[in-house]
Design goal:
The chain has 13 helices and twelve strands. By secondary structure, the protein is of the alpha/beta class. The mean pLDDT is about 95.
Length: about 350
């Protein structure tokens, strides 16, 4: 039996997939006979990132509250991998993407003065991340090949790919219903607007969709639904709890998840274990790694017509939706917590 600290960071009043994975890992460790707990480190706003890195670096995780040593530490995302421990493995979800692959998008709207400040911070973060991910951890696992390629491109940091298994929830398949299901944060990188454009395409006429999630694009998407004449076919369900998520996965026809260069995309495996096909795009990152087109789902081009054609395929052919779903469930069985824990703790 080992004592394991699972360390991640997260902004206040939010919940992302990496927290679900952290909780899943903690639960799996306990079920395997280990002691495990989740530690959340700070993630400060822009301009205060240095303070978050320093606070994390100074976090003491050497002992439990009763004075017993912590045997292993698994960190997830920036700046949680700044925590120091002799048996520290980083299972990387992502670094601060605004300073990496999203730099052009992030820096473009800034003033010349703001861009100069952020360029300096970017250099500091790059240097800190490279040091921490090569000197502060004994091994780095990337949660997808997309993350692995970013590590190679920015920093030449070696890693091994280790996909997270689905969390231990009571997933099931009740039916292949009459609607498409989207579960996503409503932000530009998730490209929910592309889903709406596809649903408005003549090919997708009559297809219903439920969109679960919240974020800064909520009102923009609501207006877009009205503008496209989709109000009778598309429902913004807002934030939903675990029970509602499992219910929708159990009853929908298929799941659509089309982000831009997503790090991992937990909902992909959640759909798989619910015996549902996933419709994604060739440039969607993690989901496109997991979905083999016409095997566990359909992989479309990132344009409304291609996506609409994929929707139409699974809605016109219930047998296809079921066949893809059965294959998806079989694919999900390749990812187990037992194997994951073995690799994280032993290597």
């Amino acid at each position: 039996m080992a004592r394991v600290a699972v360390v991640t960071s997260h902004p206040l009043f939010a919940r992302g997939g990496h927290l679900v994975i952290a909780d899943g890992l903690t639960r799996a460790l306990r079920e395997a006979g280990h002691e495990a707990t989740v530690i959340r480190t700070p993630q400060n706003r822009f301009g205060r990132q240095g303070a978050a890195y320093l606070a994390t670096w100074l976090t003491d995780v050497g002992l439990t509250f009763d004075g017993h040593p912590i045997d292993h530490l698994v960190s997830f995302r920036f700046p949680s991998y700044a925590v120091r421990h002799p048996s520290h493995v980083c299972w990387l979800n992502h670094r601060m993407r605004e300073y990496y692959d999203q730099w052009p998008r992030f820096s473009g709207p800034l003033s010349w003065r703001g861009r100069g400040k952020e360029r300096l911070r970017r250099r500091v973060i790059h240097a800190a991340d490279r040091y921490l991910l090569t000197r502060n951890v004994r091994r780095v696992f990337a949660q997808s090949r997309t993350i692995q390629r970013r590590l190679e491109r920015w920093g030449g940091i070696p890693s091994d790919v280790l996909y997270p298994p689905p969390p231990p929830r009571p997933y099931r398949c009740d039916e292949y219903g009459d609607y498409l299901f989207v579960a996503s944060r409503l932000s530009p990188l998730k490209r929910v607007g592309l889903v709406l454009e596809a649903l408005a395409h003549p090919v997708a006429d009559g297809i219903r969709c439920v969109i679960a999630g919240d974020g800064e694009e909520r009102e923009t998407l609501r207006s877009r639904i009205d503008d496209l004449g989709l109000a009778d076919r598309v429902r913004l369900a807002g934030s939903i709890d675990e029970t509602e998520l499992v219910e929708h996965l159990a009853c929908c026809r298929a799941v659509c998840y089309v982000p831009s260069a997503e790090d991992y995309g937990l909902v992909t495996l959640e759909a798989f274990v619910s015996r549902k096909a996933v419709i994604t795009c060739v440039d969607s990152g993690g989901p496109a790694e997991l979905v083999r087109s016409d095997e566990e789902g359909l992989v479309a081009l990132p344009d409304p017509e291609s996506l609409a054609n994929a929707f139409r395929q699974v809605f016109d052919d219930g047998t296809l939706a079921e066949r893809l779903g059965v294959a998806a469930e079989a694919r999900a069985r390749e990812f187990t917590w037992e194997q994951t824990i073995q690799r994280l703790l032993v290597g």
